[in-house]
């Protein structure tokens, strides 16, 4: 009787991954809205966007790109190492991913605070004296990199949670779909940055 | 061993005792049926609030000048009425209540693919609802932009826009989570033998809807987020003073909000496709055509948003293109109407309450659809834009279409959900009053719109007085009908006669399980060998 009233433990890795892929697609569309706005305003204000982009520090942008690419690699390696039943290596690789993400955030902090100390932030006096195109460029810069940074934070929390599951062996070599999903999410965060980086730093 | 298990009676999902007691057994339950009912009860509360606001607006319009409220109150009433009805009731409505309850049963599954995510989306829904409704009580007065939050007014107005926009943003996540859940459920959990083309039509409609939810909602999400940032940080996305473009807001908003109309109507069409064959005792005519037209509506519905902006300023080519695409989307909708009517041809019809709802749906939906054609035509649109005609058209589609299908579904599946039958004669009386009131309320608004009465005005000139009186009387009649309907159902859920497994002699899988269903729906996952509406 008690057996009967018990919901079967349902497990469907394929379904879980399908769900994650669809969710990632919605995230791309979310940023897609901002990319549309960016491209329209860039088209309307080519000169101002060009000038404003030169204010950004390509060095920090490049460093952050490299950091995210490496972190994507380490999380992918973590997925492989759990399949090889190497729990210790998995945890180390995930730990590196989290550290790289934090390094990204530290860079971002210095970049943003540098801009803000120069009086360039939405609604500031200096920005309101610049051209409309520059106001829009920096508005979009803060909105898009800010939303991306929020995704980094969510990603770090997600990966840290999965690390704990690996530690308690709730995630192991024959049941690791949530680790795979966290890796997929992290690749998404990386992918979006790959688009943000040229749009703001490189096209001048 | 299986023999003995089959002998023991299984408790229904309503009686089942889990880890929690009382209300916690509901709000922490991951059972798709309980979650469906949670949505139903929450929507009932929100619906009574929003319907009351609607009635108050009609009372204000019963005479020219100030009757019971001033202009600002009227503005905030139609805003809250719109936000509540759209974001809290019609968009989630049928998928969240009947989709949750019946999708797994109709495809022969024990639950949805992600039960915890399912419960989580209800929680997001409640949180979003409270944020949205809190806009009424906090800050500097209730929002007054209408449910569309048009820029630049939405960040220029001094009223309390932030919670309203944030609430709508949060509700989007609930919609996306439900959409993902249903897509994966339909892909992964169909019972053995249920091939795609053996799936009942309500799951098909939910499948099309789920894709729109997933693909369109993020766009409005980011748009509303931009309004939030605009209001808090003055970024300038849509502010002409800072270089932004308010028309861009309208584009982004309608890229979601037009497909959202199909989120509202596709499941309604799915419900009608279930009800009609059951009471016609006949296989549905043109099953494949209905499936294809469902997907066609979901697809073409993406490319018609511009018809909301015919008067906002667009190039001539864009105007013609959007107008033609708008006419195109009428074709698959009409195909469905023909299929339903053809199903009735030479059928031995059983005139039960759900079937009467389906017939009323056909009537009001056709009026709504045809008036949509009038608005889709460029020249007529210029004349009718922002008049009461648009309000009438919209309510014929959304209230007449989705609302009638919702009540139809409620009367169709009520015996399965609660295991009891409602009083049929009271249900029919309620329907008759409701239907009469509905048409008395909205038909005069077509006339008012054509003769030039604008929408969203609390006052009007003397020559609009007559039709407005009729319309307001209709509103009161309709609300009386609603009260009868809901009272009858609430009373019957406790005191109605016991309903058997299959009170309507339906053929789909939900009629093979107990009423109300047991916790896991099926003792054994069924093997599907027949087509869904096999009456021969």
Automatic annotation (TrEMBL), chain B:
UniProt record similarity statement: Belongs to the heme-copper respiratory oxidase family.
Keyword terms = Electron transport, Heme, Iron, Membrane, Metal-binding, Respiratory chain, Transmembrane, Transmembrane helix, Transport
Transmembrane segments in this chain: where? 37-57, 77-107, 119-139, 159-184, 204-228, 248-272, 284-305, 317-342, 354-374, 394-414, 426-449, 469-490
Naming one, the record's GO cellular component terms include: membrane
Query: What organism is recorded for this protein?
Result: Ancylomarina subtilis
Record carries keyword Membrane: yes
Q: What is an example of a Pfam family matching this protein? A: COX1
Q: GO molecular function, one example? A: heme binding
In the bilayer, the protein is annotated as:
Multi-pass membrane protein
* InterPro entries, A to Z: Cyt_c_oxase-like_su1_dom, Cyt_c_oxase-like_su1_sf, Cyt_C_Oxase_1, Cyt_c_Oxase_su1_BS
The compartments listed are: Membrane
One biological process term in Gene Ontology: respiratory electron transport chain
Domain Cytochrome oxidase subunit I profile, chain residue ranges per copy: 20-529
Q: Could you tell me the superkingdom of the organism this chain comes from?
A: Bacteria
Question: Keyword Repeat on this protein?
Answer: no
Q: What is this protein called?
A: Cytochrome c oxidase subunit 1
């Amino acid at each position: 009787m008690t057996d009967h009233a018990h919901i079967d433990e349902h497990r469907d890795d394929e379904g879980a991954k399908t769900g994650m892929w669809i969710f990632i697609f919605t995230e791309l569309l979310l940023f897609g809205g901002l990319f549309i706005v960016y491209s329209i305003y860039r088209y309307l204000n080519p000169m101002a966007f060009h000038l404003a982009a030169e204010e950004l520090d390509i060095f920090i942008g490049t460093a952050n790109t490299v950091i995210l690419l490496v972190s994507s690699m380490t999380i992918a390696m973590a997925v492989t190492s759990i399949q090889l039943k190497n729990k210790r290596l998995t945890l180390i690789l995930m730990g590196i991913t989290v550290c790289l993400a934090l390094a990204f955030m530290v860079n971002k902090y210095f970049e943003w605070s540098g801009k803000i100390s120069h009086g360039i932030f939405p609604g500031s006096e200096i920005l309101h004296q610049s051209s409309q195109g520059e106001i829009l460029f920096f508005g979009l810069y803060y909105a898009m990199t800010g939303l991306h940074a929020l995704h980094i934070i969510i990603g770090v929390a997600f990966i840290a949670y999965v690390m704990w599951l690996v530690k308690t062996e709730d995630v192991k070599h024959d049941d690791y779909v949530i680790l795979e999903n966290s890796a997929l999410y992290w690749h998404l965060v990386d992918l979006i940055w790959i688009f943000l980086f040229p749009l703001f730093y490189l096209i001048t | 061993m299986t023999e003995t298990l089959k002998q023991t009676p299984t408790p229904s999902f309503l009686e089942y005792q889990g880890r929690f007691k009382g209300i916690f057994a509901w709000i922490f339950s991951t059972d798709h049926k309980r979650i469906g009912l949670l949505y139903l009860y929450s929507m009932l509360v929100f619906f009574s609030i929003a319907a009351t606001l609607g009635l108050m607006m009609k009372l204000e319009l019963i005479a020219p000048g100030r009757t019971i409220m001033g202009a600002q109150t009227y503005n905030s009433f139609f805003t809250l009425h719109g936000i509540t009805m759209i974001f809290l009731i019609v968009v989630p409505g049928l998928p969240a209540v009947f989709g949750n309850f019946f999708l797994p049963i109709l495809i022969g599954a024990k639950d949805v693919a992600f039960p915890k995510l399912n419960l989580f989306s209800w929680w997001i829904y409640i949180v979003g609802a409270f944020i949205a409704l809190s806009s009424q009580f906090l800050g500097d007065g209730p929002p007054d932009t209408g449910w569309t939050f048009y820029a630049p007014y939405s960040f220029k107005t001094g009223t309390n826009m932030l919670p309203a926009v944030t609430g709508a943003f949060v509700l989007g996540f609930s919609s996306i989570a439900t959409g993902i859940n249903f897509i994966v459920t339909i892909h992964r959990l169909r019972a053995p033998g249920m091939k795609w083309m053996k799936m009942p039509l309500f799951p098909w409609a939910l499948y099309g809807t789920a894709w729109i939810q997933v693909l369109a909602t993020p766009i409005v999400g980011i748009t509303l987020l931009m309004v939030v940032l605009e209001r808090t940080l003055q970024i300038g996305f849509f502010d002409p003073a800072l270089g932004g473009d308010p028309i861009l807001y309208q584009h982004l908003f309608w890229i979601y909000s037009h497909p959202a109309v199909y989120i509202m109507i596709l499941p309604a069409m799915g419900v009608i496709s279930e009800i009609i064959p059951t009471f016609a005792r006949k296989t549905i005519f043109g099953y494949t055509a209905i499936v294809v037209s469902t997907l066609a509506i979901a697809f073409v519905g993406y490319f018609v948003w511009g018809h909301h902006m015919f008067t906002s300023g667009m190039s001539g080519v864009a105007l013609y293109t959007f107008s033609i695409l708008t006419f195109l989307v009428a074709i698959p909708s009409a195909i469905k109407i023909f299929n339903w009517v053809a199903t009735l041809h030479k059928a031995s019809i059983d005139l039960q309450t759900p079937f009467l709802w389906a017939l009323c749906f056909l009537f009001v939906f056709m009026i709504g659809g045809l008036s949509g054609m009038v608005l889709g035509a460029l020249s007529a649109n210029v004349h009718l834009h922002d008049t009461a005609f648009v309000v009438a058209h919209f309510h014929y589609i959304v209230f007449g279409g989705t609302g009638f299908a919702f009540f139809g579904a409620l009367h169709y599946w009520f015996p399965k959900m609660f295991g009891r039958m409602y009083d049929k004669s009271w249900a029919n009386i309620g329907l008759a009053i409701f239907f009469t009131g509905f048409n008395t309320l909205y038909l005069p608004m077509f006339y008012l719109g054509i003769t030039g009465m604008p929408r969203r005005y609390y006052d009007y000139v003397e020559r609009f007085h007559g039709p407005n009186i009729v319309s307001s009387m209709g509103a009161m009649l309709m609300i009386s009908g609603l009260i009868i309907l809901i009272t009858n159902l609430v009373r019957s859920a406790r005191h109605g006669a016991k309903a058997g497994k299959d009170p309507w002699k339906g053929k789909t899988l939900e009629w093979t399980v107990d009423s109300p269903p047991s916790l896991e729906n099926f003792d054994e996952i069924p093997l599907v060998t027949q087509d869904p509406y096999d009456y021969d």
